[in-house]
Design goal:
Chain A: It is found in: Cytoplasm. The structure holds two protein chains of two kinds. Chain A is mainly α. Chain A has two domains: 297 residues, 3-Layer(aba) Sandwich (Rossmann fold), CATH 3.40.50.620; 73 residues, no CATH class. Chain A has 19 helices and six strands. The chains are: A mainly alpha, B alpha/beta.
């Protein structure tokens, strides 16, 4: 019905037209009897046989260049990696992070070549390190495979030199302290006290990010590269929506997320899963499939959403992109760009590009409060009902410092176990609680005395 | 006695309603999974809706409010609950039921019967407006004219406007519809899936069209569909469970397209979304409310460009084009060119030949037996 109206927005007409064109194209191809890549028009196109819409259209080289082009565009247009940086690639062993590692490696080789060729050698080559988080403490089922996995990771990383890359294998319990046995105990206790399956999964994910941040800042890295692809982000958009995290969602899906001590960058944000797997197939990359399987229990909201997105993608191959594009239209936060402290280090070309893409950041909508557990920005209306908790104990402060989603799926519901839960949280999270309190009260005080303050700008006048 | 009950149930299950702690629980509340008794269910169900109405200031005293009544479960329960709350809390509303009759033989008979019974039961006046009243054509007449193909276009376009037109005709201040939390959560998801950021920003608002002539509101915004089904079954309200099924059957028997057409339809994901929400609810009942909360919290810049909303030059109804879709279709019907307005614009009213069609030809004016829609006070 909608398709008949002239204002149809579903694109069915366009699709029809496209189908027509495709048929024409294939007819032409049949006529020539010899199919060639639609881009370079000379090589034989690759067929992957995965049922993708553009299967058999590009040759291996053009396909690869296309995906790499998306990666490079993301990196350069958002100033993700600059010559002075020291980049840590989060490598889980999965296909996406494998591709991210490969691309960063290629970028580094190119930078090295340029460095060696240039006369003045003014631009240094950025450094690359690799981090792998050992989750066996959180998922005991993994512990048997972990030894093999780590040695596989190690050999993969060694294969990628020169330039040499440091490999950091981080146990997830390291966020609790250096004593591994005690830390492990605390982790197990913490996870046991979360009753919701999805909540537990998410908590492990947050802890994983914390351990990556920890190793990055301890070893002097300035960027953390995470290989999340479009498909992964599309699932995240829907899970966040389903968990009531609509406010903080726009912080998670931008190319850059600098709310952490070491800014996180997502250079593969614009590549879909199918492209990633095809690329792995082309380049003969292995991935740690066994680890992937063991990590994900087949229940919970996250898995339901992933299968829903997979179904949608099957029905319409551009659905994942549409989902991510929709969410990307939500107003990002002030921290969704690389902080401008080292202005001189951002090459001129990048500055121009940034201008060209005209990325808008709404400075006026800044929030200062972040959830103590998931580090998501907290909506003002959420924290407003917390002032009632002001004069209570520590456990209430924890409750107050969390977003409504974490309160529901991660925090224990009764007060007595809440206190215990708070005590087993990593130090970083609990310090966030106190910080949250301080920020709140400071903001409150500032608000009160606002009209008595002389602002810098006023003074100038 | 308690002991014997305890044996028949699972050990550890609470034997008393967890709200009043007095009576035996008869159901697990879908929204919270609390085990509660019948009396407490009525109370929380009605009280929540009351709080939504008061908290959002949906009505002002003395307003004339039309309840869009299809005869289905949502609108029937809405009519009952609103009339109860109006009496109990002295909203001071002039409530009445507004039903639309498409004029399809056998299609609305049952549901209109239900609405008529509701009129008697709840003491609410009922107004039935037919497509004949509103547009001058019944659906049966339209089908006779244009055949089995494309008639859904007419029915759909006319239905979308019918409530507003009817409400304008009857001079009401507000229109309430029975959209429930599941419907709104589905809309939020669909808008994300289809990339419609503008609609995403407004689809969760409880009142829409406030700047228009007749605001619409949804008192069931936070009410779960399951609870709407439970409510009348405990109360033995009358409603037409078959409405939906019959509608589906008839539209299917009318359509001559091949049966597998829906697989290629661009809107196939709509069905997936509904199923998905049901699955989510099973896993975590709170998810529906969370989706609505997300929809309300999305950071959408206030400068987001909305689809331009103009008014139809002919009838004054909201329209993005010169004439609204219903007027275009109607014009086609009245001029004996029923294909007008179907498919891509082929130089219709809103296309290149505007000037030509601006003045309705004499033949069209003649065949307009009933009022032109231009006579409405929008």
């Amino acid at each position: 019905m909608a398709c008949n109206s002239s204002g149809c927005e579903s694109g069915c007409y366009d699709r029809e037209k496209e189908n027509g064109r495709k048929i024409e194209e294939s007819a032409v191809a049949d006529g020539v009897k010899e199919s060639v890549c639609v881009k370079c028009k000379c090589n034989e196109p690759m067929t992957f046989g995965d049922g993708g819409s553009d299967d058999g259209r590009f040759c291996a080289e053009c396909f690869r260049n296309n995906v790499f082009g998306k990666f490079r565009l993301a990196v350069t247009s958002h100033a993700m990696i600059t010559p002075s940086d020291n980049v840590l690639v989060a490598f889980s062993g999965g296909s996406s992070s494998r591709v991210a590692l490969q691309f960063v490696h290629e970028l580094q080789i190119k930078a090295l070549k340029n460095y060696e060729a240039s006369r003045d050698r003014s631009l240094p080559v950025f450094g690359v390190g690799v981090a792998f988080v050992d989750e066996s403490a959180a998922y005991p089922a993994l512990s048997t495979e972990m030894v093999d996995a780590v040695s596989w990771i190690r050999s993969t990383v060694t294969d990628l030199s020169p330039p040499a890359k440091d490999l950091h294998v981080v146990p997830i319990e390291s966020v609790f302290g250096s004593d591994s046995i005690e830390a492990r105990d605390r982790l197990v206790k913490l996870l046991d006290s979360v009753s919701d399956e999805t909540g537990k999964e998410d908590l492990v994910l947050h802890l994983k990010m914390l351990s990556l941040q920890k190793v990055a800042s301890e070893n002097g890295y300035t960027r953390l590269v995470v290989g999340s692809c479009t498909s992964r982000l599309a699932s995240h958009v829907l899970t966040a929506t389903v968990k009531g995290r609509g406010y903080s969602l726009s912080a998670d899906i931008q190319h850059v997320d600098a709310r952490w001590k070491v800014p996180i960058v997502l250079p593969l944000r614009d590549c879909i899963w199918q492209e990633i797997t095809r690329l792995c197939h082309l380049d003969g990359f292995d991935s740690l499939k066994t680890l992937e399987l063991a990590r994900h229990p087949q229940s919970g909201i996250n898995d339901l959403v992933s299968s829903f997105v997979a179904l949608l993608q099957e029905e319409n191959p551009s659905r994942e992109c549409t989902i991510v594009r929709t969410a990307a239209k939500l107003t990002p936060f002030y921290f969704n760009k690389i902080p401008e402290t080292d202005d001189a280090c951002v090459p001129l070309a990048t500055q121009r590009r940034l201008k060209k893409f005209n990325l808008k950041y709404d400075g006026s909508m800044t929030t200062e409060a972040f959830c103590a557990i998931c580090n998501g920005p907290i909506n003002g209306s959420d924290s407003s009902d917390l002032n009632t908790f002001e004069e209570r104990g520590e456990s209430d402060a924890l409750y107050a410092a969390c977003c409504s989603s974490c309160r529901f799926q991660i925090l224990p519901q009764d007060r007595s176990s809440l206190e215990q839960f708070g005590s087993s949280l990593p130090h970083h999270m609990t310090s966030q609680v106190n910080h949250h309190h301080k920020v709140n009260s400071q903001a409150y005080l500032r608000e009160k005395i606002k009209d008595c303050l002389i602002l810098d700008t006023e003074e100038a006048i | 006695m308690e002991a014997s009950e305890g044996k028949s149930k699972k050990p550890g299950a609470s034997r008393l309603c967890c709200l009043c702690n007095q009576r035996r629980p008869v159901l697990k509340r879908p929204k919270t999974l609390q085990q509660i008794c019948r009396e407490c269910f009525y109370e929380v169900f009605e009280e929540e809706i009351h709080q939504v109405i008061v908290g959002n200031r949906l009505f002002k005293s003395g307003e004339r409010v039309a309840i869009g009544a299809s005869g289905g479960k949502d609108s029937t329960v809405l009519a009952y609950v609103l009339s109860e709350l109006n009496r109990r809390h002295n909203y001071g509303l002039d409530l009445f039921l507004l039903s639309i009759d498409e004029g399809i033989t056998g299609y609305r008979d049952d549901s209109l019967e239900t609405v008529k019974r509701n009129e008697v039961q709840y003491g609410l006046p009922l107004q039935i407006l037919s497509y004949k009243d509103l547009y001058g054509w019944t659906m049966d007449e339209i089908v006779k004219m244009i055949g089995l193909k494309n008639n859904c276009t007419f029915c759909g376009v006319f239905r979308r406007q019918a409530l507003d037109r009817g409400a304008a005709l009857l001079k009401v201040d507000k229109l309430v519809t029975g959209h429930n939390a599941d419907d709104i959560a589905e809309t939020v998801l669909l808008n994300i899936l289809r990339g419609d950021i503008a609609r995403l920003s407004r689809c969760t608002s409880i009142t829409t069209g406030e700047d228009g002539p007749i605001p619409r509101c949804k008192p069931f915004k936070y009410t779960y569909e399951k609870e709407i089904v439970i409510y009348p079954s405990l109360l033995k309200l009358n409603f037409d469970t078959l409405t939906y099924d019959i509608r589906m059957l008839i539209s299917r028997s009318w359509t001559t397209s091949p049966p597998n057409v829906s697989i290629y339809s661009p809107n196939a994901y709509r069905g997936f979304a509904r199923e998905f929400i049901k699955d989510l609810e099973r896993l975590r009942p709170r998810a529906i409310l969370d989706i609505i909360k997300s929809g309300e919290d999305f950071r959408i810049a206030t400068t987001t460009k909305m689809p331009e909303q103009g008014t139809c030059e002919r009838c004054g109804y909201i329209s993005s084009q010169k004439w609204c879709k219903a007027c275009v279709l109607l014009e086609g019907l009245n001029r004996g060119l029923p294909k007008m307005g179907i498919g891509r614009a082929r130089g219709g009213v809103n296309g290149d030949h505007k000037k030509e069609t601006k003045k309705p030809p004499a033949s069209a004016a003649k065949s307009l037996e009933s009022k032109q829609c231009g006579s409405l006070d929008f």
